[in-house]
Each structure stands twice: as structure tokens, then as C-alpha cells.
Amino acid sequence: MMKVAVCPGSFDPITYGHLDIIKRGAKVFDQLNVVVLNNSSKNPLFSVEERIELIKKVTSDIPNVKVDSFQGLLVDYAKSVKASAIIRGLRAVSDFEYEMQITSMNRVLDDAIETFFVMTNNQYSFLSSSIVKEVAKYNGNVSELVPASVESALREKFASKE
Ligand code: PNS
């Protein structure tokens, strides 16, 4: 049977850190659905459509990755695509409490879906979409942090806000 996993997140925008987790997850599962979900504590810079477009561009060379979005609970999305697993990246101890809360809640909601954590490559342990937006907003160089298409989308987005 085909093993499907879900890699959820805000992806506002996708970074090399996310991409590293996606590539590694895609090696282990038959299909990896990267899904843009709403995080109610965040106010996104990019629309869901823009985020999907960027994820599609930078994952186009990974054949078993599908890109999607969902309004609602992650476990409901996972069920709808018959996924048995959720993949999340862990950067540092500081991520642990937040991730433990989400994972425990998801397990209460549906204990048939298992969450797996992938330790972020050390190279990206400091990296977050928020820090990338902060640097890009003030015209700093983010070329080592995000793919070129994301870098230009950030540049355009901040130029249109001036
Ligand atoms: O990239 P993020 O912002 O850390 O991702 C968090 C996300 C979007 C995965 C999380 O907020 C989420 O799963 N949102 C969907 C709503 C949901 O299922 N909430 C219940 C678990 S707390």
C-alpha cells in the first residue's frame, strides 16, 4: 500500500530549511503532500496562492511531492488524502514545546496519524520564514536562505508595499 505523509506549515515563504525537510521526507514516503495551512497566530505576507506557487516552483524536481492548501484542521486534511503520517522539522530545543503541543493535540484529534520529526540540518537551525522576511524587508541578502524564485518574490512584495 502507498504510504502518504503530510508536511504541513505556513510556508510564508518556503525557505531552504523547509526544502531540506521536504526532500528528506520525500525519500522515506511514497508520496509527500506539502500543505499550506492557516496558523491563527500568524499574519501572512503572501497569499495562500502565492505560497503554493512558490512551493510548486522549488519542489518541481521532486516527483513524489504534491502541493496543496487546506482551510481547517490538519488531521482532517491528512484523513482526506489518506495520509498516515505528519512530518515536521525540529530546529532547536526552543521548537520543542510548541511542537509537542501541536503533536499532542493532533493525537487527541486522531490517534491513527503519527507525527515524525526530522532534525533540521545544522546549517539551517537558525532559519525561519520570519527572519527571512525581516532581512528582506530591509533589503538584506537572503540568497543563502531561500531559493532564487522566493528571493525575487520577496523583493517584489516589499517593493509593492513601499
Ligand atoms: O509553519 P507553522 O506556522 O509552524 O505551521 C503550523 C501549522 C500550520 C502546521 C498549524 O498551525 C496547524 O496545523 N494549523 C491547522 C489548524 C490545526 O489543525 N490546529 C490543531 C493543531 S494545534
Architecture overview:
The chain has 162 residues and is an alpha/beta fold. It has a single domain (4-160), classed as 3-Layer(aba) Sandwich (Rossmann fold), CATH 3.40.50.620. It is built from six helices and five strands; from the N terminus they run E-H-E-H-E-H-E-H-E-H-H. It has a five-stranded parallel β-sheet, sandwiched between helices. The chain is globular. The model has no long low-confidence stretch (mean pLDDT 96). The structure holds 4'-phosphopantetheine. The site of 4'-phosphopantetheine has 12 residues, from strand 1 and helix 4. Substrate binds at residues 10, 42, 74, 88. Keywords: ATP-binding, Coenzyme A biosynthesis, Cytoplasm, Magnesium, Nucleotide-binding, Nucleotidyltransferase, Transferase. Residues 6-134 form the Cytidyltransferase-like domain.
Q: What is bound: which ligands?
A: 4'-phosphopantetheine
**Spatial order of the strands in the main sheet?**
3-2-1-4-5
Unreliable spans? none
Largest sheet: 5 strands, parallel
What's the architecture, going by CATH? Answer: 3-Layer(aba) Sandwich
Q: Structural class, judged by helices and strands?
A: alpha/beta
List the helices and strands and how they pair.
Elements: E1 4-9, H1 16-28, E2 31-37, H2 48-59, E3 65-70, H3 74-80, E4 85-90, H4 93-109, E5 114-119, H5 129-137, H6 148-161
Bound molecules: 4'-phosphopantetheine.
